[in-house]
Amino acid sequence: MRFFYPCAMTLVLAVAQGCSVTAPPIGDSHVSHEESGIMPTVQSQPKVRLVSTGRASWYGPGFRGKKTASGEIFDDSKFTAAHKTLPLGTIAKVTNLTNGKSVKVEINDRGPYVDGRVIDVSHAAAHALGMVDRGVAHVKIERISNDNSESVD
Question: What structural domains and CATH numbers belong to the chain?
Answer without folding.
Answer: 56-145 (2.40.40.10)
